[in-house]
Specification:
With about 140 residues, this protein is an alpha+beta fold. It has three helices and seven strands. A hairpin with a 3-residue loop joins strand 3 and strand 4. Bound molecules: guanosine-5'-monophosphate (5GP) and zinc ion (ZN).
Length: about 140
């Protein structure tokens, strides 16, 4: 963390301000998309709002919508250049979910085959049970 004009800037704020170099694949006045420094597949991209929010739960909804639009632009471009078989679009919230940089970002990850460096496994054999009380609270 580096202090600038009394504010603490996170690493992605510094990337958004072009104070740290990155491989930029998309930019407008509100959003930036750049290649992940440690890509799990070819084309692994991070899409961020330039404004700092810790995670998607407190990010302005219109920005999340714009991020989705950018992901669609990049999907088209990457399909033409990299020819993947699929994509994941995901955002981790809090350390328990794997978040390591606390400036909201969406990972756009082109997928090539099942052994391509990312494991997203839903183990339904270990599925959990709800109590009646939990279901009453969860469902409207
Ligand atoms: P998280 O674990 O928070 O969901 O994802 C953070 C991602 O940011 C990681 O995939 C990591 O490789 C990437 N990352 C961290 N620091 C930098 C950086 O300085 N530049 C770039 N391009 N990516 C970064
Ligand atoms: Zn930030």
């Amino acid at each position: 963390m580096i202090k600038k004009r009394g504010t603490v800037m996170c690493v992605f704020c510094k990337i958004a301000n072009h104070e740290i170099p990155s491989k930029i694949v998309y930019e407008d006045d509100k959003l930036l998309a750049f290649l992940d420094i440690n890509p799990v597949t070819k084309g692994h991209t991070l899409i961020i709002p330039k404004k700092h929010f810790d995670s998607f739960s407190d990010c302005d909804s219109d920005l999340v919508k714009d991020i989705h639009e950018v992901s669609k632009i990049l999907v088209k471009r990457y399909q033409a250049i990299l020819n993947p078989n699929g994509f994941n679009l995901l955002s981790n919230m809090n350390a328990a979910a794997g978040q390591s940089v606390f400036h909201v970002h969406f990972h756009l990850i082109p997928r090539y085959d099942e052994n391509d460096g990312i494991v997203l496994l839903f183990n339904h054999d270990e599925s959990v049970q709800y109590s009646k009380g939990e279901l009453t609270q969860l469902c409207q």
